[in-house]
Amino acid sequence: MAFRKLLLGLFSFISIGFAFIMDAQQPSPADDATRKLAVDIFRQLIEINTTDSVGSVTAASEAMAQRFRDAGFADSDIHVLGPNDRKKNIVVRLHGSGKHKPVLLIGHLDVVEARREDWTTDPFQFIEKDGYYYGRGTSDMKDGDAIMSATLIRMKKEGYVPSRDIILAMTADEEGGTSNGVDWLIKNHRELIDAEFALNHDGGGVLADHGKPIMMEVNAAEKLYGDFVLTATNPGGHSSLPRPDNAIYELADALIRVEHYQFPFELNNITRAYYERQVAMSSGQRAADLKAMLKTPPDMDAVARLSKDPVDNSTMHTTCVATRLSGGHANNALPQMAQANVNCRIEPGHSLEEIRLTLEQVIADPKVAHPTIKVQFRENTNVLMDHGSDRHSFVPPAPRQDVFEPLEKLVAQMWPGIPVVPSMSTGASDGVYTNAAGMPTYCVSGEQYDRDDIRAHGKDERTGVASFARGVDFYYVFLKEVTEK
Fold first, then answer.
1. pLDDT digits (tens, 9 = 90+) for 404-426
2. Which residues contact 10 (CB under 8 A, 6 or more apart)?
3. Total of domains in the chain
4. Are 103 and 139 members of one domain?
5. Is the bond leading into 297 cis (omega within 30 degrees of zero)?
6. Which residue among 385, 414, 434 closes a domain?
7. Cys bridge to 455: 199, 461, 466, 472, which one at CB 3.0-4.6 A?
8. By C-alpha distance, which of 222, 205, 227, 267 is closest to 415?
9. Closest by alpha carbon to 177, among 107, 113, 256?
10. Pairing of strands 197-200, 103-108
């Protein structure tokens, strides 16, 4: 069955390539040399450990710098720099005519931790089997790093002069750690990456259902990530004398209050456009509820029905959920302290401090004059702060036509019949930094992924061989369309 699927995928891939070649109005898709180069870069990156614990992003950045030097990029257009020896980022520039301000391509080189005993393959070996590439980072997101790098190298070798400079920044600590590369570059070397808008390969793509393409999703906004720590304290005592103000019980009660709290319903420019396009793709009660929800004022009964779906609920609301628990100091003693980490994904326009204050109000017990639970904000450095950061993600502007028009045209050719749908990522990416810096950011990828086989951050992470090859073809044509005119 897998072999048959691979053959069908390859046939579709070849057919699309032939269609592009026959269309003289379009740039040609990637050639065999570029596909091979992309796979070579992909393999090299997978086999460089870039985890926060023992890996080195610097090693990956230096390896990519050598690739760009070998392709003819001047040393003055290649920068490997960062806050410490293990977390150096790479910034590369392909010069254009200067007719328009630059476009910035971003992607992170670091990956989530992976243990060999959890996987059926070595997570830091690039393995091809059964029509897939396996390894940590194959879908998040060394595939995108390889595709963007191979695209720029091809353009350089062809002598292509875009209408705007193309800047590629591949960075550290998107998946955690204390040295986020995009944030560091904006604060310390803004001149190297300043652009009119940014394209992030860490999201979006062709969503498929059991191999059938459904839509091209473009993340054009994202929620803000925030961790908050709830701490309950108590004098404790002997466990033979239970008391109702047990720290663990108090914390459990507070977490139940958080679970049952619903943040207000919100739509922004991107999520409204997302649901407007969803109407045409839906039927029955869902279609009716979407139409009712989009009215002014919205039908809150329709909102409540839609919110029963976890994806819709997260798209329309800020969400907070307990992710870690700790407490107590002995099996035979009442706990003197209990603590929980509450992870929030925050709608654009709201600060971390605003959410911290909201959590304080949610867990407050009106019967207690002096609250016994403290709510603190956890910084990226793991430092706990009594006052949350004022950082917030910005309400996104309307989708840029110079990005979406060529994208819709290309998608109609490569995946006929599927819509291009702007969406808001309910997770988080480095786009939170570029958007905040005034560079509207769009997650665009030509790779296809199946909704029932998303393995990023998990065991046996993988991406399809044919999907990756098509993603190489797509990105070259898309980036040319965006930067030619």
1. 999 999 999 999 999 999 999 88
2. 466
3. 2
4. yes
5. yes
6. 385
7. 461
8. 205
9. 113
10. parallel
